[in-house]
């Protein structure tokens, strides 16, 4: 065992507990992975009926900033992590005074704020070799007047709390920016130049408490209506050169942050082949779900290893994989409000199908209910299963 970083070994009497802030599907899949290794899992989440709560050994039902609840979580757990990036950074700092917390409050707060995040990416550029999209902070009318023409057309994004394309408005002119800024309630925003994307990729990287990092194969992502639709690994468009540049950039970024845990970094590949860093998530990511079925160590097992100060696992991918997100839409007949039960038996008959449902009881359009990962000896076979699943579920391809 590493003397400087003694690990929190699983099992034993009393058992070792790992804690997670947030009760969503990422917390649920973390709980499954940590329990498989012999840990007990505690979840702190305000709502009792939540995906992670159903999987956890203990659910602390409280607000994310409830100090009594946070103290209880810290007292119970050898280490605590988060499953969503908008966890109050003060809560992570409060926990860190009482137990081991990974990632740190400082790292989480960078990822929570698009301005801080972009500034950090710019600081990293000499080592990472990638820059974010050209951008400008918009917090006053004067900022709008001062917009450089080169930033238009662009996208106005709220600085905080954006996800799944929410909190974003596309703008062509300064007047559009004014209207969009009003629509956002005049909260501080970031105007980003609209870039010509060829395709989008993400890189999952993990850094252990001992400072060792690993990086997963690069994932190619397709979004629909601002929500991740599919992740394909290896990506059909990704060149070896692009993959190694993005992986090297991700490693440089996680190192410079001094981050401990799982970090997912999203990149754009532009039509001229250049790479632009978009944003990062201080936790496992939807585009990393393929690692559960296609890699030696899943992103959730890595999260448990990193927070328990254990050696990180093998990131090797053993099978080509395609992940399809399952939204609440598939519980309704095409375009109608008539509910139906999706034909999971038919989906599961497809070669290489692995179904993951998150235990949410109320399917709503656009709500992430689960995912299916198809693994196969070749990517073409995995893609054929994906196409068949889309036909069965009534998802247009
Ligand atoms: P999520 O949390 O789901 O990843 P988000 O709401 O935080 O998304 P972004 O990832 O910044 O927001 O943007 C969502 C999508 O909008 C991107 O995946 C990309 O398709 C598109 N997009 C964002 N910024 C730009 C840009 N500067 N130029 C072109 N397209 C963009
Ligand atoms: Mg994104």
Helix content range: 25-40%
CATH architecture descriptor text of the largest domain:
2-Layer Sandwich
From the helix content, strand content and strand pairing, which structural class follows? alpha+beta
> Could you tell me the mean pLDDT?
95
Helix count? 13
Low-confidence stretches: none
Overall 3D form: globular
Number of domains: 3
Number of strands: 18
Distinct small molecules: adenosine-5'-triphosphate, magnesium ion
The CATH homologous superfamily name of the largest domain equals: ATP-grasp fold, B domain
Biggest sheet architecture? 9 strands, antiparallel
Can you walk me through this structure?
With 397 residues, this protein is an alpha+beta fold. The chain folds into three domains: 17-101, Rossmann fold (3-Layer(aba) Sandwich); 134-193, ATP-grasp fold, A domain (Dna Ligase, domain 1, 2-Layer Sandwich), CATH 3.30.1490; 197-393, ATP-grasp fold, B domain (D-amino Acid Aminotransferase, Chain A, domain 1, 2-Layer Sandwich). The chain is built from 13 helices and 18 strands. The chain has helices spanning 25-36, 51-55, 67-76, 89-96, 105-112, 114-128, 141-145, 174-183, 240-257, 290-294, 299-307, 344-349, 379-393, and strands at 17-21, 40-45, 58-61, 79-82, 100-101, 135-138, 154-158, 168-171, 189-193, 197-207, 213-215, 219-224, 227-233, 261-270, 275-281, 321-327, 353-357, 368-375. Strands 10, 11, 12, 13, 14, 15, 16, 17 and 18 form a nine-stranded antiparallel sheet that branches. It has a five-stranded parallel sheet with strand order 3-2-1-4-5, with helices on both faces. Helix 1 (25-36) crosses helix 11, helix 3 crosses helix 4 (89-96) and helix 4 runs antiparallel to helix 5 (105-112). The longest helix is centred in the middle third of the chain and has 18 residues, at 240-257. The mean pLDDT is 95. It binds adenosine-5'-triphosphate and magnesium ion. Magnesium ion binds at residues 266, 278-279. Residues 133, 155, 162-166, 168, 192-195, 197, 200, 223, 226, 266, 278-279 line the site of adenosine-5'-triphosphate.
């Amino acid at each position: 065992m590493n003397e400087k970083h003694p690990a929190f070994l699983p099992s034993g009497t009393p058992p070792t507990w790992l804690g997670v802030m947030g009760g969503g599907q990422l917390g649920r899949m973390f709980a499954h992975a940590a329990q498989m290794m012999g840990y007990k899992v505690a979840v702190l989440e305000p709502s009792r009926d939540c995906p992670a709560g159903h999987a956890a050994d203990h659910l602390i039902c409280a607000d994310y900033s409830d100090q009594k609840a946070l103290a209880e979580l810290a007292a119970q757990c050898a280490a605590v992590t988060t499953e969503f990036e908008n966890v109050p950074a003060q809560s992570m700092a409060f926990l860190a005074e009482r137990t081991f917390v990974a990632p740190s409050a400082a790292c989480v707060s960078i990822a929570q704020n698009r301005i801080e995040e972009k500034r950090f990416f710019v600081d990293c550029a000499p080592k990472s070799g990638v820059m974010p999209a050209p951008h400008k902070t918009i917090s006053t009318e004067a900022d709008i007047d001062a917009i450089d023409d080169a930033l238009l057309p662009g996208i106005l994004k709220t600085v905080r709390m954006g996800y799944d394309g929410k909190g974003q408005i596309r703008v062509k002119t300064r007047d559009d920016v004014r209207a969009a800024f009003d629509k956002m309630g005049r909260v501080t925003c970031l105007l980003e130049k609209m870039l010509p994307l060829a395709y989008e990729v993400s890189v999952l990287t993990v850094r252990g408490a001992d400072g060792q990092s690993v990086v997963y194969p690069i994932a190619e992502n397709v979004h629909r209506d601002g929500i991740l639709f599919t992740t394909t690994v290896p990506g059909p468009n990704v060149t070896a050169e692009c993959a190694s540049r993005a992986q090297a950039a991700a490693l440089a970024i996680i190192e410079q942050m001094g981050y401990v845990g799982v970090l997912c970094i999203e990149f754009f590949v532009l039509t001229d082949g250049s790479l632009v860093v978009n944003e990062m998530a201080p936790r496992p990511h939807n585009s990393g779900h393929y690692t559960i079925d296609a890699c030696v160590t899943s992103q959730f097992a890595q999260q448990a290893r990193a927070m328990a100060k254990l050696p990180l696992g093998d990131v090797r991918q053993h099978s080509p994989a395609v992940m399809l997100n399952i939204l609440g839409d598939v519980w309704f007949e095409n375009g109608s409000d008539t509910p139906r039960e999706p034909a999971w038996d038919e989906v599961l008959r497809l070669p290489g199908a692995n179904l993951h449902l998150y235990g949410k009881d109320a399917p709503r359009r656009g709500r992430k209910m689960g995912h299916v990962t198809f693994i196969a000896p070749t990517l073409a076979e995995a893609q054929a299963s994906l196409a068949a699943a889309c036909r069965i579920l009534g998802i247009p391809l």
